[in-house]
Give the backbone structure.
Amino acid sequence: MFVAASTDCFPESSLSEALSRLVDLEYTAVEIAIREPGPQLRPSQVAADLEKAVQVCRDTHRLTPCAYTVDIQTENDDEYYRQFTALCKLAKATKVVSITVPSSELGTPFNAEIERLRKLVSIATLDGVLVSIKTEIGRMSQDPATAVVLCDQVKGLGLTLDPSHYVCGPLGGANYQNCIKYVYHVQLRDSTKDELQVRVGQGEIDYGKLVSQLSLVHYQRALTAVIPPMPDVDQVGELRKLRLLLDSLL
């Protein structure tokens, strides 16, 4: 395992600015967020000019790209899969194995979600990329049991575990032990049952226990800090604190 940070920590900054700030914080690996819309890189831009996107994602200020988290927003299915295909080619060209996508919103027919995820996995497999769905409040993956069933039904699908969404929210305190064996990627902050993000050390995330659980299934990928700005909180200090904490556990 190794420590990384996400460009989602700086949602208002350009990609270059976000990378520069993470270098200043002494991170060495980065998860690049590719969202539509946003001030950083967008899925539509990747699909429109793959070569340029590859150049952008290789210019990472000495940070090693370890994962992409993507949010494609289009109502056209063909365009959705076209953009996702381009993102997989970007991952292959930049030697990134992991792509995180959101699961569908609550209320989506289960069979439709299975079909969508199977197609994503089949596309990604052609470029040697692993697809995982993020555990997230308000989406089908907010219930650990449902997340496990999705992975069981879609061969090759994994999870991007953000334990904050299982500590907070409508299923706060849910047991996610059964999710561990499906984890392809990890995103971390600190949380309580009432607040998704609090200062590191003031929440209920047991980082040591999580690292031990991941070690038992031979997880060898990133532990990624995702700490967007909070009012009246020193974000730089929080990101540095989490990096040091995670380093001490590895």
The radius of gyration is 17 Å.
